[in-house]
Design a protein that fits this description.
By secondary structure, the chain is an alpha+beta fold. The protein is built from four helices and three strands. Helices cover 43% and strands 21% of the residues. It is globular and about 45 Å long. The model has no long low-confidence stretch (mean pLDDT 83).
Length: 82
């Protein structure tokens, strides 16, 4: 049985971005409360803050954490065409 670790918590739309980045880098991602986070986020967490949590297998955690940190630092931002 695998163990999973939380790697990201945030709004539903941002969680989907992070999930796609992780999956594109070969990391399998599991969404916690994904349906409720999109329908009724205030029912998942107090005030609806950070309703979506992404989990990864513990063996992928360090790789995933580095990818999430890079995302949060803007490394995956779209370039300004001007």
């Amino acid at each position: 049985m695998s163990e999973y670790s939380n790697v990201f918590s945030g709004p539903n739309y941002e969680g989907m971005i992070v999930k796609n980045i992780l999956e594109n880098n070969g990391v399998e991602v599991f969404e916690v409360s994904a349906l409720m986070a999109s329908i009724e986020p205030w029912a998942v967490t107090a005030g609806g803050a950070n309703p979506l949590t992404l989990q990864v297998n513990h063996v992928d955690f360090e790789k995933a954490a580095a990818i999430v940190a890079a995302y949060e630092n803007g490394d995956y931002a779209l370039e300004d065409p001007s």
